[in-house]
Amino acid sequence: MMNYDIAVIGGGIAGYCAAIRSQQAGRKTVLISQGQSALHFSSGSIDVLGRLPTGEPVVDPFAAISQLESAQLENDELASAVLQEAALPEEADSRQQTIRQTVQHPYVKVGRTGVKQSLLWFKEMLAAEVALSHQPDHANHWRITPFGTLKATWLSQPHVYQHRTNAPFREIVIIALAGYRDFQPQILKDNLARIADFSGLPIRIATIHLPSVEHDQRHPCERRSLDIAHLLQQAPIWSAFCEQLTEMTQSDDLVILPAVVGHGDGMAILDRLQQETQRHFHEVPTMPPSLMGMRLEAALHRIFIQAGGVHLKGDQVLGGHFEGHRLTEVYTRNLTDIPVRAEHYIMATGSYFSQGLQASRQAIKEPVFGLDVAQITPRTQWGGHDFVAQHQPHPFMTFGVSTNDQLHPSYCGETITNLYCCGAMLAGYDPVFEGSGGGVAIATAYHAVEQCITDNVCPATCQEALS
Ligand SMILES: Cc1cc2nc3c(=O)[nH]c(=O)nc-3n(C[C@H](O)[C@H](O)[C@H](O)COP(=O)(O)OP(=O)(O)OC[C@H]3O[C@@H](n4cnc5c(N)ncnc54)[C@H](O)[C@@H]3O)c2cc1C
What we know:
About 1% of the residues have low confidence. The protein is 34% helix and 18% strand. It folds into two domains: 291 residues, FAD/NAD(P)-binding domain (3-Layer(bba) Sandwich), CATH 3.50.50.60; 127 residues, Rossmann fold (3-Layer(aba) Sandwich). The chain is globular and about 70 Å long. Helix 1 runs parallel beside helix 13. The structure holds flavin-adenine dinucleotide.
């Protein structure tokens, strides 16, 4: 049997944040995680809120969270009025539910102050590994994407250019690698040239030739960002790369570089590249695997292990046992009949992408415990009319596990008081449409641990000391 204060299920950004925060707070913590998380596909920037659920663009995400809170307050008042007016209690209850469900955004549960506190904690916690930064006025900045579009984000890695209104460069140079197919410089160039902020600024593509990338291919599609990063660890290839970069660009250019540098050795090698070339880089993520996201995951893993956490990596929680309103133990694929027990459980198993939610033709379910999921029926209303619609999100993206303000989910309508849900598995927001994925994951994970810590149960570490 394995006993912990807090057991965290799922090793994406939400799971890691919950596990690190819990371990930092002196709680004996186990993290159980299977497979890759969304970080392997991410830009490595943390999006907090790029636009409101109404589609309105956001400049200051924290001011916008206050707007979400006010909307919730108005809705609650409306729901109370409905209660007073309704002839039958059942009628009032169902109408109240409908009104509340439209605005149950996770940020409202955490609150503006809590969201900001969690993000500043995240930045501080990672500082020694990856020095993320934001704008001095705490507003969003724009990140140039691999497609040459601009995306609002809040926290970016050191070699990401944070665009606001003007681009103070002589020229923009997009670096291509001959023979590497997971980055499309021409698309980036064409789209970037259409953006008003960059009009009048020359944009060109410069191609670097590294013999081992170009000629030594087993199959045209086989070289991934990870392979290039490993090749660049060889001294002659590194020198050729730096020399060509320096020849093709100048120190007052913005040099857009696909993220093919720095795996394992993380930021150190990128810092070295900048020192050796004296160039101003803007790293863009490539097709997966994304080194920029993996860099964050590797750092989070190191921080958790250094803090003394236990990581059951590559294991999967298959189910658990409930007694009354509490989850008492969970079972995993590798530990078979040996249960993992904890005072509190934090679940961060992600969305459809990570199988934290599963869709069948009839319904959307949470597959581990069968927790209650907020969704609409019939299925014909799950998707919008257009597959790619700029201003109309697909409803299914906001479906997920429903929780109360403490992030406790329910099972068959009964609240589970020692289980907390966080991250992409939650209902009430659309991370893609709003651009809020990283922020919600961090804020809700932090909030979940705060709830566990303020619960006065004697932690396992303290019980061990007393026995
Ligand atoms: C392709 C893509 C790109 C994105 N890019 C960005 C970006 O650049 N910036 C940004 O801010 N947001 C981005 N997002 C959104 C954001 O990354 C996600 O909302 C956030 O990472 C979700 O984190 P999470 O920890 O909740 O879930 P996930 O990252 O999905 O992690 C869930 C983890 O739980 C594990 N798991 C699932 N079931 C079990 C189980 N039974 N037992 C054990 N483990 C289990 C999964 O294997 C996975 O590792 C992106 C999302 C996607 C899908």
